[in-house]
């Protein structure tokens, strides 16, 4: 099946051909078409759906246990977060970065 973004798309406002672009919203990269003439934007429907899923996960609070494993502590990452990250293949890697952001905040970076 072909993707509509692989075809020429004309702007509904001015009739000019729209150009492919990448939009980044809250670190989430989305494919888009932008009209250079009037600024009209179309976000790829699949990317928009994935972004909505991301917002749903982002706004959800997960309570997880801190466990002692050997000489270190471990925190489990909920399956739905890992599944979402794996769907974003470009974002997922088995190695993550952990930083101490402030006195009560740890930051886990997948990249």
Short structural description:
With 111 residues, the chain is α+β, with helices and mostly antiparallel strands.
Model description:
The chain has two domains: 1-60, N-terminal domain of TfIIb, CATH 2.20.25; 61-111. The strands form three sheets. The protein has a three-stranded antiparallel sheet. The relative contact order is 0.10. The longest helix has 14 residues, at 45-58. The mean pLDDT is 87. The chain has 111 residues and is of the alpha+beta class. A hairpin with a 2-residue loop joins strand 6 (96-102) and strand 7 (105-110). The chain has helices at residues 45-58, 79-87, and strands at 19-25, 28-34, 41-43, 66-69, 72-75, 96-102, 105-110.
Quickly list its features.
single chain; 111 residues; alpha+beta; N-terminal domain of TfIIb; 2 domains; three-stranded antiparallel β-sheet; 2 helices; 7 strands; 34% strand
Structural class: alpha+beta
Give the CATH topology of the largest domain: N-terminal domain of TfIIb
Number of helices: 2
In whole angstroms, the N-to-C terminal distance is 30 Å
Q: Report the helical percentage.
A: 10-25%
Radius of gyration: 19 Å
Strand count, sense and closure of the main sheet?
Answer: 3 strands, antiparallel
Average pLDDT, rounded to a whole number, is 87
Strand order of the largest sheet: 1-2-3
Number of domains: 2
- Uncertain regions spanning at least 5 consecutive residues: none
Question: Looking at the structure, what is the overall shape?
Answer: elongated
Report the portion of residues in β strands: 25-35%
Pattern of helices and strands: EEEHEEHEE
Task: Please tally the β strands and state the result.
Answer: 7
């Amino acid at each position: 099946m072909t993707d509509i973004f692989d075809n020429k798309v004309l702007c509904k406002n001015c009739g000019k051909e729209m150009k492919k672009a990448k939009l980044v919203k809250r670190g989430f990269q989305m494919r888009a078409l932008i009209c250079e003439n009037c600024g009209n934007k179309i976000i790829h429907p699949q990317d928009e759906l994935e972004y909505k899923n991301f917002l749903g996960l982002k706004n959800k609070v997960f309570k997880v246990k801190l466990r002692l494993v050997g000489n270190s502590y471990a925190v489990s990452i909920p399956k739905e977060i890992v599944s979402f990250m794996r769907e974003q293949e470009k974002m997922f890697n088995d190695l993550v970065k952990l930083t101490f952001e402030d006195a009560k905040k740890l930051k886990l970076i997948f990249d």
